[in-house]
Amino acid sequence: MVEREGSRGEDAKVKTSTMETSWAPGVNRPGSSGGWAFAEFTEVHELQDDLEAEITAHLDEAVATATRETAGAAI
Asked: Rounded to two decimals, what is the model's pTM?
């Protein structure tokens, strides 16, 4: 889930904390809905670069996890 936040009020801080500590881990815990992550972007002029970096990091993590699981299953 991607959030593009224009202002950074207290409500945005609470929402970000909830998404990072409760929502994403809760959705991911059963393992039946794929892998979900949350990213918040505040700098509109950096959005493309920041989004690409976030996607790359999560894809790299997913590949590393899959590689470890495949290697462990082969043993």
From this structure: 0.65
DSSP H or E run through 40: strand 39-41
User: Which residue type is seen at 45?
Assistant: H
Burial (CB count within 10 angstroms: exposed 0-12, middle 13-18, buried 19+), residue 6: exposed
Question: CA of 27: how far to CAs of 6, 9, 11, 20, 21, in Å?
Answer: 26, 26, 22, 11, 11
What's at 9, amino acid-wise? Answer: G
Q: What does the chain come to in residues?
A: 75
Give tens-digit pLDDT for 11-31: 888 988 898 899 888 988 887
